[in-house]
Amino acid sequence: MKKVAVVGLGNMGMGMARNLLAAGFDVTGFDLRPERGQMLEAQGGAAADSLAGLADADAVFVMVMSGAQVMDVVAGEGGLRHCLSAGATIIVSATIQPAEMRAVGDAIAGTGLRLIDSPVSGGQFGAEAGTLTLMAAAEQAVFDGNQAVLNAVGEQIFHVGEEIGMGQTVKAALQALIGVSFVGIFESLALGAAAGVKGETLFEVFSSTHVANTPFFKNCAGLIMERKFEDSGSHIATMHKDLGISMALAREKGMPLFATGAAYELFQAGISRFPKGDNWTIVRFLEEFSGTEVQW
Known about the structure:
By secondary structure, this protein is an alpha/beta fold. It has 14 helices and nine strands.
């Protein structure tokens, strides 16, 4: 049985750890918050007091927030680079800049450690249900050798290339699409409500169309109309950060992203106005212009 570790036991990391346990893996987790480790122990896993406590892991998922945090976990003092045995695999499932991911690869070069650049999509629900989409970049042999581990947390596993950084590049492009799609939902619902249309009518009509007859729209619109703007599993800070990565990649490639740029600015407005909210809280910002609310 492979020993698997998860660094970062937030909503995403905890969901992944539970699915790894369900798949029969020996799972150890590390988080700076001791209570998160205790939660994992209650599920049947083990909690480490430091990264050194993961030294016997065959594979380690790194699910933290930023590129700086990933680098610290991997190559900082006491990091995975210094405690894992040669042959172990580090799987970076966090979403960071492609250049940051390549720097992580450089930091472990020559150590005998293996690396998979595999950001995920699917949010907290996908992490809990084990239905995440993984965009994995790694050498073919490393990708093949970790199929059981990857399949324990994901439903769709894509090998997007062997070059480290390509996983993050695919994710940056995907987040541009998702961010623009979010804004389309927010603005169309807010516009209809401002013009006096009932939320139920908007939902039924939009859901009947080819464009919006999707779980993505229905979940998002349902949360908006039920006014569930916090603790629903998709914090606005994460999407704002991800769109910033998309825009940074566009600047690097000299490419204008008109709609994505507008989405990024709207998320900036939303996080400034409602910093504790989830993605859909942006609707509240739009509603302030008309004095109306999107409700059933």
